[in-house]
Amino acid sequence: MKKIVALVGSNRKESYNKKLALYMQNRYQDKLDIEILPIDELPMYNQDDELDPPAIVNEIKGKVKESDGVLIVTPEYNHSIPAVLKNAIDWFSRVDRVMVNKPVMIAGGSGGVLGTVRAQMHLRQIMNSPGVSALTLPGNEVFIGAIQSKIDETGKLVDEATIQFIDSVVDNYIHWIEQTKGY
Ligand code: FNR
């Protein structure tokens, strides 16, 4: 069983992206052990503190370090990724650089038609920065437009085409984790 940590880019209670991450945690539980990390509890990154950070920083970084891969599910804020996600990545990119060579899968949904395209373009660039150096699953872009119409009131993804697409991307991601082992 592969241990995956999930980073959700929205800190609001009724977040569609959080619901999507929870849905994936449940749907793929036979293949992946997905733990959603509370990155919204991380303090604001400060370089003065990076060598001796608050305990929660080490706790969350440790979980990323020990994982087989990182799943990022994020909305788009002002054509980029939300600060809560960037803040977490900035902590992860320093000192022991816990995302180096981690296989990463990205998904995201928004209310508009583009479904986080611009945020994910930025995110892929960030994943390639020297401090991060993650191994992002190539291709396989999961953009979910009009996400409010695809998740029901119980938090379940109900759009069949989207479900099937994510199923296929998760299979590709599992293959990618195998392919990138030993990097
Ligand atoms: C947004 N939203 C948004 N949507 C989009 O497609 N492109 C964008 O650039 C933005 N920018 C943006 C900025 C801020 C500050 C907010 C609060 C919202 C709308 C966004 O996609 C929508 O609120 C989603 O529902 C947010 O995701 P969660 O919280 O439901 O996961």
From TrEMBL:
Residues 3-145 form the NADPH-dependent FMN reductase-like domain. GO terms for molecular function: FMN binding; oxidoreductase activity. Pfam families: FMN_red (PF03358). GO terms for cellular component: cytosol. Belongs to the azoreductase type 2 family. PANTHER family: CHROMATE REDUCTASE, NAD(P)H-DEPENDENT FMN REDUCTASE LOT6. This is NADPH-dependent FMN reductase. The lineage of its organism: Bacteria, Bacillati, Bacillota, Bacilli, Bacillales.
